[in-house]
Amino acid sequence: xxxxxxxxxxxxxxxxxxxxxxxxxxxxxxxxxxxxxxxxxxxxxxxxxxxxxxxxxxxxxxxxxxxxxxxxxxxxxxxxxxxxxxxxxxxxxxxxxxxxxxxxxxxxxxxxxxxxxxxxxxxxxxxxxxxxxxxxxxxxxxxxxxxxxxxxxxxxxxxxxxxxxxxxxxxxxxxxxxxxxxxxxxxxxxxxxxxxxxxxxxxxxxxxxxxxxxxxxxxxxxxxxxxxxxxxxxxxxxxxxxxxxxxxxxxxxxxxxxxxxxxxxxxxxxxxxxxxxxxxxxxx
Amino acid sequence: xxxxxxxxxxxxxxxxxxxxxxxxxxxxxxxxxxxxxxxxxxxxxxxxxxxxxxxxxxxxxxxxxxxxxxxxxxxxxxxxxxxxxxxxxxxxxxxxxxxxxxxxxxxxxxxxxxxxxxxxxxxxxxxxxxxxxxxxxxxxxxxxxxxxxxxxxxxxxxxxxxxxxxxxxxxxxxxxxxxxxxxxxxxxxxxxxxxxxxxxxxxxxxxxxxxxxxxxxxxxxxxxxxxx
Lengths: 284, 228
What we know:
The structure holds 2 protein chains of 2 kinds. By secondary structure, chain A is an alpha/beta fold. Chain A is built from 11 helices and 12 strands. Chain B has a domain of 158 residues: MetI-like fold (Orthogonal Bundle), CATH 1.10.3720. The radius of gyration of chain B is 20 Å and the shape is globular. The chains are: A alpha/beta, B mainly alpha. At the A-B interface, helix 1, strand 2 and helix 8 of A face helix 2 and helix 10 of B.
């Protein structure tokens, strides 16, 4: 009896030791990672941006250069434009990089953001199955939208997440005076990647930024059907979170980031960036 | 697709991809810490509620059982707003988008589970054990310790259940952690990201790693539990 108790106690002890060791080890790792932040104060920037810049891989190319140059460390949170701006509004990030001009202007007008700058643009395209049952290929985007709503024969998948892409899509529906609803119109509340995958599965249509589409092209049986329409331009802006609203934000870091994003050198890098042979972004 | 994923997950594990191990380490760190804290809070509370009769006990019980099913995104949202710069505690300490924020959210998810399972374990057998121990001449403290010993299986089950829930949870950690690469990215948020990018095989591989991890930890605890 006594022996058994001793053994089980030993077992408890060993389990806890293992747990402590694991926690301790990882904890140490986390601490050593954090150390530099304490030495150099405010060298950390939180960037809230859209899934399109992150998923396309552009930031992975630009940020190391920025970090190398300035010594700042950038933490990237990728969300839809709506959530990204909301994060800035609450003061939980220092700078936003998004693409929905009306929402950006509102953000600045409400005093949440300052020093908005144009960075670059890419364009939207309408993609769908190669067979194109609705025959929208080559149409202007507004005509294509009208056709989809009128025939109701194909399905259109909308991101429905208040992202820049979603807002742009809604603006286009408004332009043709159609309230998209019904069985043919699916609003799924997801990021661009998820939306493209679903469109692919359902052989439906959707509107996407060219970047996300190009980066996933090899996994999709979707083709670009509508492109090159001036209506489909998609400008990106960078905005610092207003330090007067949230004194704790890293305003200097945000300004350094904005300066970097609008520099000639960065513009060249943006224009050089290609995925699957396609240039995704055009510096302004 | 699945076979390919299985192979690539094995490859991933064997090839010793540093970022993968960091993600695994981070997942373990966050979830184990959360479960340990939840255990330290939930087991004593659960034993207290299970043993004592007090006014409003049935209401407390109901609350605990309801909270066992708290939706993770909801908890995530509450913790997010609480920790936000615009929230109440930011002037004291700012924790949003850190591993600590993730631990807080997971403690909230894990605690009711630990409590609930502890309560049912205690209710089943406590009176008999306590009475027997008292009959054998044990002091109150000794009797309680005997109870813990006797209920070990139940308590470990409580911790395992809670761990299974939090390690596999994505909604809350995504919201409060922000899925920052190299900092708050854990297995589940990495799966979401890779799925969003269409890298199904990598996402599946990460999922298999997650399963493997749960399996290892569970079997470790179970083997200990039954070896007595």
